[in-house]
C-alpha cells in the first residue's frame, strides 16, 4: 500500500475523523458491494456469541456513534435488550482496510427512526410489518400471505395509496464507540494496527459524553 494509506505516525489523538474518512472513501470509491455493510456481534443466552451483517446507515464522528435499523423483536434486538453492548466490524477488502468497534447500544430517538423508515421503498416498509423477524416460518407462501394480510389491514396496495406507518417494534439502534481499532494491510502481512479506547458517561436515554481517547499501536 502507498504510505498515505497506512496509519499516520504519530497516531491521531482522535481516531474518529480517520474512520469517517475511510467510511466515506469506501462509499465514494464503490469498489465492492455494500460498502456500508458491517458485522454486528451480540451476546445471547449462556453468553453464546451471535453475529450477522447489517447496513450502517449513519456515522456521527463528532459524537462517536453508528446507526443501523432492525426489528427490535428479532434475535439481535432481544439480545441487545438483554445485554446492551455490541461489537461491529467493517471489512473493505478491496481497499485493504478494516475497522473494529465496540461499545454500549441504545435505541435511536423516534424521529430518527421515523425519518429513515419513511425513506425506504414501499415494499420494504410493508415487509417490516409482515415479517416476524427470526421467528419460525412454515413456508415461502406463508410469508407472502403475511405481506398481503398487512396490505389489506393497512388498506395499502401500492405506494400511492398512502403512507405506511413505522411499526413500534422497528427502528434504529445506536452503537456508541468506546473502543475502535483501525487496520491497514501491509506488505508481507506486516499490517498496520492501532486501537483507541475512551470512557463514556451516560447523558440521557439516547446519548453519552466521551472522555479523551487513549491510543496505541498493536502488533499485526
From TrEMBL:
Chain ranges of the Pyridoxine 5'-phosphate oxidase dimerisation C-terminal domain: 170-220
Cofactor requirement: FMN
Family: Belongs to the pyridoxamine 5'-phosphate oxidase family.
Enzyme Commission designation: 1.4.3.5
Pfam families: PNP_phzG_C, PNPOx_N
Record-given protein name: Pyridoxamine 5'-phosphate oxidase
Annotated Pyridoxamine 5'-phosphate oxidase N-terminal domain residues: 27-152
Record has Oxidoreductase as a keyword: yes
UniProtKB keywords: Flavoprotein, FMN, Oxidoreductase
InterPro entries in the record: Pyridox_Oxase, Pyridox_Oxase_N, Pyridoxamine_oxidase_dimer_C, Split_barrel_FMN-bd
Amino acid at each position: 500500500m502507498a504510505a498515505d494509506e497506512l496509519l499516520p505516525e504519530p497516531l491521531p489523538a482522535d481516531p474518529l475523523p480517520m474512520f469517517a474518512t475511510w467510511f466515506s472513501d469506501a462509499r465514494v470509491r464503490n469498489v465492492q458491494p455494500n460498502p456500508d455493510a458491517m458485522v454486528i456481534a451480540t451476546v445471547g443466552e449462556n453468553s453464546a456469541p451471535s453475529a450477522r451483517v447489517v447496513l450502517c446507515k449513519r456515522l456521527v464522528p463528532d459524537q462517536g456513534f453508528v446507526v443501523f435499523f432492525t426489528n427490535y423483536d428479532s434475535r439481535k434486538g432481544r439480545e441487545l435488550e438483554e445485554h446492551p453492548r455490541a461489537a461491529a466490524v467493517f471489512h473493505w477488502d478491496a481497499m485493504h482496510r478494516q475497522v473494529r468497534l465496540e461499545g454500549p447500544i441504545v435505541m435511536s430517538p423516534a424521529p430518527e427512526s421515523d425519518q429513515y423508515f419513511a425513506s425506504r421503498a414501499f415494499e420494504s416498509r410493508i415487509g417490516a410489518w409482515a415479517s416476524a423477524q427470526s421467528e419460525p416460518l412454515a413456508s415461502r407462501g406463508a410469508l407472502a400471505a403475511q405481506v398481503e394480510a398487512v396490505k389489506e389491514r393497512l388498506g395499502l396496495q401500492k405506494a400511492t395509496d398512502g403512507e405506511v406507518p413505522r411499526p413500534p417494534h422497528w427502528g434504529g439502534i445506536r452503537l456508541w464507540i468506546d473502543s475502535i481499532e483501525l487496520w491497514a494491510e501491509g506488505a508481507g502481512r506486516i499490517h498496520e494496527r492501532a486501537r483507541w479506547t475512551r470512557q463514556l458517561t451516560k447523558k440521557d436515554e439516547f446519548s453519552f459524553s466521551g472522555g479523551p481517547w487513549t491510543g496505541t499501536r498493536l502488533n499485526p
